[in-house]
């Protein structure tokens, strides 16, 4: 073994939460503070990295939809390399590592290479963005089901997706599309073409939980033009369903944002 005292290190596949550092779990904070090596994604709040030891090695493995910088193979090999040196490695991922986070793929690679690992859940962005925009993903009077859908494939395109658009259009609960804002027009047009009412409420939440969060709400037939006019970027979530109607009533975070702007004005 090429390791300290003949022992490999351990890898902690860790959810960094949706953006606001106050939503990071205690377990995630603890492993970051003890880590020898941290491999972190692009969407991880930089403040989280400040919790690490000064001598901890910080490695950016950030990837963005449509413009990947570091390959998944490189990330996998880097985790194993440092673990085999006896290091305690934190693989820090935005949101939750098992919700469209490729955490399972990384865990499988570690297992194949004889590296022990722990998976630490994080608050996934759909739950947090819903809460911070006053949009309950479930509501007794509006939705008893939630469906999470990825808005792009491994290659960053919906062309290869096997979406059952008729099933999605008929779904009576809330639909949340992750990583789909670049394909918003395709998503909305296909939903309507498959039978979803063009008047179905929809919201796009950009930079959820952060002080510069923006929420663009409307209906399926109009939301694409609204989002284009607002120049919405990534990260952003698309929430489709009647629960969006609660946004104006329950948008508590808008008051926090207003207070912050007044303080810095």
UniProtKB/TrEMBL annotation:
Residues 10-223 form the Tetrapyrrole methylase domain. PROSITE patterns: SUMT_2. The lineage of its organism: Bacteria, Pseudomonadati, Bacteroidota, Chitinophagia, Chitinophagales. Its EC number is 2.1.1.107. GO terms for molecular function: uroporphyrin-III C-methyltransferase activity. This is uroporphyrinogen-III C-methyltransferase. GO terms for biological process: cobalamin biosynthetic process; methylation; siroheme biosynthetic process. The keyword Lipid metabolism does not apply. Keywords: Cobalamin biosynthesis, Methyltransferase, Porphyrin biosynthesis, S-adenosyl-L-methionine, Transferase.
């Amino acid at each position: 073994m090429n390791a300290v005292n003949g022992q490999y290190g351990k890898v902690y596949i860790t959810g960094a939460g949706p953006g606001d550092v106050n939503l990071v779990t205690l377990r995630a904070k603890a492993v970051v503070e003890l880590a020898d090596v941290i491999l972190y994604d692009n969407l991880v709040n930089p403040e989280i990295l400040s919790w690490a030891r000064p001598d901890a090695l910080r490695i950016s493995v950030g990837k963005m939809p449509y413009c990947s910088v570091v390959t998944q193979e490189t990330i996998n090999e880097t985790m194993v390399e440092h673990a085999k040196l006896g290091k305690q490695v934190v693989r820090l991922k935005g949101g939750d590592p098992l919700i469209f986070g490729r955490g399972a793929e990384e865990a499988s690679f570690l297992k194949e290479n004889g590296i022990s690992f722990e998976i630490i859940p994080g608050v996934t962005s759909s739950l947090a963005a819903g809460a911070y925009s006053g949009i309950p993903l479930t509501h007794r009077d509006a939705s008893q089901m939630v469906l999470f859908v990825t808005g792009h494939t491994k290659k960053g395109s919906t062309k290869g997706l096997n979406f059952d658009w008729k099933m999605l259009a008929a779904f009576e609960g809330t639909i949340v599309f992750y990583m789909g804002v670049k394909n918003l027009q395709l998503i909305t047009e296909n939903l309507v073409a498959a039978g979803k009412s063009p008047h179905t409420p929809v919201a796009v939440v950009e930079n959820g939980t952060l002080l510069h969060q923006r929420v663009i709400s409307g209906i399926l037939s109009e939301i694409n033009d609204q989002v284009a006019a607002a120049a919405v970027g990534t990260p952003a979530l698309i929430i489709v369903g009647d629960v969006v109607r609660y946004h104006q009533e329950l948008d508590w975070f808008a008051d926090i944002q207003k207070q912050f702007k007044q303080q810095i004005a």
